[in-house]
Design goal:
metal-binding, hydrolase, alpha/beta, manganese, 38% helix, binds arginine, 11 helices, binds manganese (II) ion
Length: 301
C-alpha cells in the first residue's frame, strides 16, 4: 500500500496541552519504520500548520465553542491533503492531535468518494453540537458536523454541507455518551454499538454485523476514525478523556484484523495521544506503537 502519513499537531479541539505532541512522539517512536518494514511505501507529508492562539482568545469566535475558526481552518487544510492523497492513489493515514481533526479527514475523503462510510471507534460519540456540548471542546463535535449537524463553521468545512449520511456511520465502543448525543443518535437512527451492546452480543458478532451492513450499503470508501481512548483507561493514561470499561489490546487488534481484513478501508485517523500526561513508563505511547504495528502488519500491501 502507498501511505501518505499526515500529522495534525492539534490541541485546540480538546483544549489540553500535550495533545499537539502526538505526531512528533509517534514519529520519534518509529511509526515510519513500522509502516516501511511491513512492506508499504510511506510518504511523510509532514505536519499541517497550526496557527498559535493565546488561551485568552479561546471563546473569541463563538461563546460556546473553543478556538472555532482555528479548528475549522486547520481542518480545511487537512481535508485538502486527504483529498489530494486519495487523488494520487495513496492511503491517507492521519495522526493526531485531538479528534476535532476527524471533521477534516472526513471532509477530504468524502469529496473523493461518492458514498462513504465512517467507522468511529471511540469511548465517546463525538456527536455534540455547541448546544449539547458539556465542555465547548470541538473534539466532541466532529462526527455531528460531518453529518451536517451543528454550527455552519463546522458543517461547511472544505465544502458546504453533509459529508457522510447517518446510515453510513458506525460508532463502536461508546461508553461515555452525553444525553444530547443519545438524543441525536436516536433521531438519526445511527448504527451505534456501545460497549454495553458489545459486551452483551460479543465483539465478533458486532464486527461481523458492521462488515455485513457496510458490504450491503454499496459504499465506495470507508474511513476509520480511531480514538485511542476506546481502549480501557488503564491502558491509555496519556489521553485527555480516558474512560474505564474499554477494550483490551487484544480486542483492539481484533477490530483491525476484521476491518482491515475486508480490504475496504480507504483512509484512517489515529488520535488523542497526549504524551505530556502519559505515565512514567510511557504506557500509552507503547500501547499506541503496539496497535500501529498490528495495523500496518494487517493492512494489505
Ligand atoms: N474525542 C474525544 N476524546 N472526545 C471527548 C468528548 C467528551 C465530551 N463528550 C465532550 O463533548 O466534551
Ligand atoms: Mn473522539
Ligand atoms: Mn474519545
Amino acid at each position: 500500500m502507498d501511505i501518505n502519513l499526515i500529522g495534525v499537531p492539534l490541541k485546540y479541539g480538546c483544549d489540553r496541552d500535550g495533545a499537539q505532541l502526538g505526531p512528533a512522539t509517534l514519529r520519534e517512536n518509529g511509526i515510519i519504520d513500522i509502516i516501511k518494514k511491513n512492506g508499504h511505501d510511506v510518504h511523510d507529508m509532514g505536519d499541517i500548520y497550526i496557527p498559535y492562539v493565546v488561551s485568552e482568545d479561546k471563546y473569541k469566535d463563538h461563546p460556546k465553542m473553543k478556538y472555532l475558526n482555528t479548528v475549522a481552518e486547520v481542518n480545511s487544510n487537512l481535508a485538502n491533503n486527504v483529498y489530494c492523497s486519495l487523488k494520487g492513489q495513496s492511503f491517507p493515514f492521519i495522526i493526531g492531535g485531538d479528534h476535532a481533526l476527524g471533521a477534516g479527514s472526513i471532509a477530504g475523503a468524502s469529496k473523493f468518494f461518492k458514498n462513504m462510510a465512517v467507522i468511529w471507534i471511540d469511548a465517546h460519540g463525538d456527536i455534540n453540537t455547541y448546544e449539547t456540548s458539556p465542555s465547548g471542546n470541538i473534539h466532541g463535535m466532529p462526527l455531528a458536523a460531518s453529518m451536517n449537524v451543528g454550527h455552519p463553521a463546522l458543517t461547511n468545512i472544505y465544502y458546504d454541507g453533509i459529508k457522510v449520511i447517518p446510515q453510513n456511520v458506525y460508532i463502536l465502543g461508546g461508553r461515555d455518551i452525553d444525553s444530547g448525543e443519545f438524543a441525536l443518535a436516536d433521531e438519526l437512527n445511527l448504527n451505534m454499538y456501545t460497549m454495553d451492546i458489545v459486551r452483551e452480543r460479543g465483539l465478533d458478532n458486532v464486527l461481523e454485523e458492521i462488515v455485513e451492513k457496510i458490504k450491503a450499503s454499496n459504499v465506495d470508501g470507508v474511513h476509520i476514525s480511531f480514538d485511542i481512548d476506546v481502549l480501557d483507561s488503564s491502558l491509555v493514561p496519556g489521553t485527555g478523556t480516558p474512560v474505564a470499561g474499554g477494550f483490551s489490546i487484544e480486542e483492539g487488534k481484533e477490530i483491525f484484523t476484521t476491518l482491515l481484513g475486508e480490504k475496504f478501508i480507504t483512509s484512517m485517523d489515529f488520535v488523542e495521544l497526549n504524551p505530556k500526561i502519559d505515565n512514567e513508563d510511557k504506557r500509552t505511547t507503547k500501547n499506541c506503537i503496539e496497535m500501529l504495528e498490528h495495523i500496518f502488519s494487517t493492512m494489505h500491501n
